[in-house]
Each structure stands twice: as structure tokens, then as C-alpha cells.
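Hey Z.,

So I finally got round to the heme C thing we talked about over coffee. Here's the setup:
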Amino acid sequence: MVQGRFFGGVLIGGALLLSGCSKAVPPAPTPQEALALRPADPRIASLYESACKACHAVAGTGAPLVHDHAAWDPRWKQGLPVLVDHVLQGYRGMPAGGQCLTCTPQDHQALIRFLADQPEPKP
Ligand code: HEC
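And the result:
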């Protein structure tokens, strides 16, 4: 009897832990954190700061906030080519090219990876 309850507890605890894991989304950055985030690559960082940042680092602009997984994960699931396309064509509140006229498609990929907080693929 005592042993049965012990195992029941372990099972429920384990199940909670597992469901917690699959749903765990890192918390969104605070407004100050969002403003301070910067891509590691200096070239990408300067493109980011002259274009995407004005909307994507400011809460309330309608743009998914930089590194906010709750906002980005469903969009990321569309796949990078679709996302690049949406930036190039413009998408709802976002102007075509995301206001980066000098960005190459590779730049846009790197910028989107940074915004969505998705690591670069292994070379
Ligand atoms: C003028 C404001 C503005 C600028 C500048 C801007 N964006 Fe956006 N972006 C938005 C808004 C608003 C949305 C959300 C559109 C919606 O879903 O309603 C968005 C959405 C996105 C999405 C998601 C598209 C999808 O399919 O869900 C990506 C990717 C993106 N932006 C990338 C970028 C990149 C990269 C830059 C810089 C080169 C950039 N944005 C610059 C406003 C902006």
C-alpha cells in the first residue's frame, strides 16, 4: 500500500515534468532586454539596428518581439524560406524588405534567425 502510493507519486511527478518540458517556452525579454539585444556578427548587427530593430525590439508595434519564443515559434514553423519571402514581399504591418534595401537574402536569413532566436545551422 505504502509502496503503491510512492510509485503513484513518482509517476505523476514524472508526467508533470515531461509535460512541463514539452511546453516550456522561455520568457519573453523585458522591454529593456529587447532593446539591448544585438546580433553577434557586426555586419548583421548594423543592418539589424538600421532596419528591423525599430519595430522588432519595441513592444506594441505589432511586430513579434525579438527573442520572444511565444511569438516566434509558430512563425518559425512556416520554414525559413517562407519567412524570407514574407520579409521581401512585405507582410501585413511590415513594409517590403523590412526597410532594409541593402540586405541580401542571406542577410535576411541571418536577421530572421536572430529575431526568432534560432541557432545558425552547423557548417
Ligand atoms: C516598420 C516596422 C517593421 C520593420 C522595420 C521590420 N518589421 Fe518585421 N514585422 C513587422 C510587423 C508589424 C510584423 C507582423 C506582421 C503580422 O503578422 O501581422 C512583422 C513580422 C515579421 C516576420 C514574420 C513573418 C511571418 O510570416 O510571420 C519576420 C520574419 C520579420 N518581420 C522579419 C523582419 C526583418 C528581418 C526585418 C529587418 C530587415 C524586419 N522584419 C523589419 C514590422 C516590421
